[in-house]
UniProtKB/TrEMBL annotation:
Its EC number is 3.1.3.12. It is an enzyme of class 3 (hydrolase). It holds the Pfam family Trehalose_PPase. This is Trehalose 6-phosphate phosphatase. It catalyses: alpha,alpha-trehalose 6-phosphate + H2O = alpha,alpha-trehalose + phosphate.
């Protein structure tokens, strides 16, 4: 079986980054992008308005709308921006019904804690954590998305018991500057920039001790160029914030008036049309521009498992916690592998491949703390049992 790392070596050495099929899709998208006839919403194109007054579009549809495709239209961009970034959620009876049926399918990881630890019995748990909205609250200024000291202490303890990786859309250096724990693995830029622990981790494996993997390094000059173009283009939209994530660029619209979202989408699209090797995806109040290589948080998860020596292992139990659509790639990988599970951080029902849910970062912290306590207790128990056996063996020998 060809390992993922071998596949990657092949992919990067051949520089085969964009398939012909993808190229033709991109060309179609550019053709549509330059056509002004696609700028106006018709009733038929409007997505359904969901309970609570915000728009719901299935994840698949969002993907169809946002990934570069022949059907890409400005109005669907804006609708999708609204769908993944609801600005008003009202409490209505139907929303409550939706919520309770969703919770049945994606129960709270806190309530299911015992079942979860039972399922992990005899297996090595490996933790994957998204950053924004998972370890830190979503805040107006993305530069100030700090995690609390209590959360940092929790993650530090977690990494003592389980190999732990932070997987984020942000630039790796940026996410490290927030987390500041050298004993973790970091996968920045949606997994396109991976580095192993610089110190203090017992979970390092052979040749990949200083894992450093950057499958999109040849895109750096293009990303620099697009960053500058977006900065210039969006400066007339108050509140828009362009963030350089080394291998990708984020355009945050958390502080942009909803009335100006279409203007911003138009600006971003006008820059992107010159870069067919880049694609656009979307997170919570953020547009993400990244290379069209087939690499995402799911691939990063597989790469890290392989680097840790769990490539073809059946006794590994990966747990991925994230709040974003980009985390779905990782949830999907876990479902397909039939190993471990994903936990979606969300207060509202969402179409997801995660098995469980947590409402917000404070619940994530509770879950991680319980995991640490459980592991500590089970290690103590094992230690006591071993000591008892040793004592018995000594007394029998005498
Ligand atoms: Mg997130």
């Amino acid at each position: 079986m060809v390992s993922l790392i071998e596949q990657i070596d092949k992919m990067t050495s051949q520089n085969v980054l964009v398939s012909d099929a993808t190229k033709s899709e991109i060309n179609m998208a550019i053709a549509v992008a330059v056509s002004n006839s696609a700028l106006f919403t018709t009733a038929a194109q409007k997505p359904p308005v969901g309970p609570g007054g915000f728009i719901t579009i299935s994840r698949k549809k969002l993907l169809q709308n946002l990934e570069i495709s022949g059907a890409a239209r400005l109005n669907t961009w804006v609708d999708s921006m609204k769908a993944s970034s609801p600005t008003h959620i009202k409490s209505t009876p139907s929303l409550c019904q939706d919520q309770s049926s969703w919770i049945l399918h994606h129960p709270s990881a806190l309530e299911m804690f015992e079942q979860i630890t039972k399922a992990s019995k005899g297996k090595q748990i490996v933790m994957f954590l998204d950053y924004d909205g998972t370890l830190s609250p979503i805040v107006e200024d993305p530069d100030r998305a700090f995690m609390s000291d209590a959360m940092r202490a929790t993650v530090r303890k977690l990494a003592r018991y389980f190999p732990t990786a932070i997987v984020s859309g942000r630039c790796r250096d940026k996410v490290y500057s927030f987390v500041r724990l050298a004993e973790l693995y970091y996968a920045g830029s949606h997994g396109m920039d991976i580095k192993g622990p610089s110190k203090g981790s017992k979970y390092k494996n052979g040749a990949h001790q200083a894992v450093l993997f950057q499958p999109a390094s040849e895109f750096v000059p293009m990303i620099d160029e697009v960053y500058k173009a977006l900065l210039e283009k969006t400066k007339s939209t108050p509140g828009a914030k362009v963030e350089h994530n080394k291998f990708c660029v984020s355009v945050h619209f958390r502080c942009v008036d909803e009335k100006r979202w279409s203007e911003l989408a138009l600006q971003v699209r006008s820059v992107l049309k010159d870069y067919p090797k880049l694609r656009l995806t979307q997170g919570r109040k953020v547009l993400e521009i990244r290379p069209t290589i087939k690499w995402d948080k799911g691939k990063a998860l597989e790469f890290l498992l392989e680097s840790l020596g769990f490539a073809n292992c059946t006794d590994v139990f990966p747990v991925y916690i994230g709040d974003d659509r980009t985390d779905e790639d990782a949830f999907k990988v876990l479902r397909e592998r039939g190993q471990g599970f994903g936990i979606l951080v969300s207060k509202i029902p969402k179409d997801t491949n995660a098995s469980y849910s947590l409402q917000e970062p404070s619940e994530v912290m509770d879950f991680l703390q319980r995991l640490v306590r459980w592991k500590r207790l089970s290690l103590r128990r094992q230690f006591r049992v071993r000591r008892r056996f040793e004592e018995m063996a000594t007394s029998l020998a005498n």
